[in-house]
Amino acid sequence: MLRKAALASWVLDLVYLLAAPLLLLAALVASRGFTRPKLRRGIVSKLGVGLRRREGERSLIWVHAVSVGEVLTALPLVQAMEQRWPGREVLVSVSTYTGHEIAARRLGADKVIYAPIDLSFVVNAFFRALRPAALVLIELELWPNFLLCAFRRGIPTLIANGRLSERSTRRYELLRGLSRALFSLPTAVGAQSEECRSRFQRLGVVPEKLSVLGNLKHDRQPSPSTRQAPDVRLRLGWRPVETLVLVGGSTHPGEERALLALYAQ
Questions:
Q1: Are the CB atoms for 46 and 143 separated by under 8 Å?
Q2: Which residue in 57, 70, 89, 101 is the catalytic one?
Q3: Regarding beta strands 157-162 and 134-138, do their DSSP bridges make them parallel or antiparallel, or are they unpaired?
Q4: In a 3-state reduction of DSSP, which class is residue 142?
Q5: Among 25-39, 113-127, 141-155, 214-228, whose mean pLDDT is lowest?
Q6: Is 70 a residue of the active site?
Q7: 180 C-beta neighbours (distance < 10 Å), count
Q8: Pick from 132, 136, 138, 140: which is nearest to 71 by CA?
Q9: Distance CA 185, CA 4 (A)
Q10: What's phi and psi for 230, nearest 5 deg?
């Protein structure tokens, strides 16, 4: 199995390198020729430049959250792990600049890094430097070399707050063999719902690895928006008599009509 994992990493690297010109072009367009410092800094960090080797013998739990939404979802889990295992370190990796900014603000810059790009030699360099004892992936961030490296090193991997839509499941099923190999790598999956659990099982996760643990987003502490409301109103120029504000944010078909009907009442 380990030999197959090594072969899979080599094949993946070849595919990535063949696609590199297109990926580089996309990155150039997105970053306006790498002139945006925050994007340039993120790309360099994802290659492992400046990554320090972790000192000491304390075991490390590596939590990966893609961007802002996943970071906010991961916060109560990170805080719970720090309280339960005060002798262990918890490190959070992110893929985006905004995710890094939020995580550093909430957890401290020393607890946040950019995740490696999914080339085996880069991923291996991160694992050698960090020496994690466990890996936690928030929702569904499955990079093949990332998972293969953890598997080859015998590092348990948990998908926390696991989420799979029916549409994503059908897409994975188009490459059934590859998908089943990929989804067989995690040690355990904590699904958000029974529907998600069933979809993970369809993609090759054995029932023994699956648990339904609910949605971590429900464990978030609400922000102190009530106390901040007067300052927000002042900045927006609202007068005290204007007390009614209706917001239709991220609506679905038919919901605008319901909002207008409520306003008419």
A1: no
A2: 70
A3: parallel
A4: coil
A5: 25-39
A6: yes
A7: 15
A8: 138
A9: 12
A10: -60, -40
Among the listed residues 135, 102, 101, 133, the one whose alpha carbon sits nearest the alpha carbon of residue 116: 135
Quick one: tokens of 174?
A: 């188009």
258 to each of 157, 174, 245, 263, how far by Cα in Å? Answer: 44, 39, 15, 9
Tell me the C-alpha distance between 112 and 41, whole Å. Answer: 14
259 CB burial (10 A radius; 0-12, 13-18, 19+): middle
The position carrying tokens 């549409």 is 167
**Beta-carbon count within 10 A of 158 CB:** 19
Contact status, residue 152 vs residue 5, Cβ threshold 8 Å: yes
Average model confidence (pLDDT) across the chain: 84
Both tokens of residue 81? 């792990």
The two tokens of residue 125 are 């360099």
Buried-exposed string 213-248: b where 16+ CB fall within 10 A, e elsewhere: eeebeeeeeeeeeeeeeeeeeeeeeeeeeeeeeeee
Segment 219-257, tens digit of pLDDT = 666 655 666 777 777 777 776 665 667 777 777 777 888
Specify the amino acid at residue 156: P
Q: Between helices 144-152 and 2-30, what is the axis angle to 10°?
A: 150
Angle at 41 between CA 39 and CA 45, to 5 degrees: 115
Domains of the chain (ranges, CATH numbers): 2-155 (3.40.50)
- Residue the block writes with tokens 């979802």: 73
Chain CA centroid to CA 198, Å: 21
30 pLDDT more than 60: no
pTM of the model: 0.76
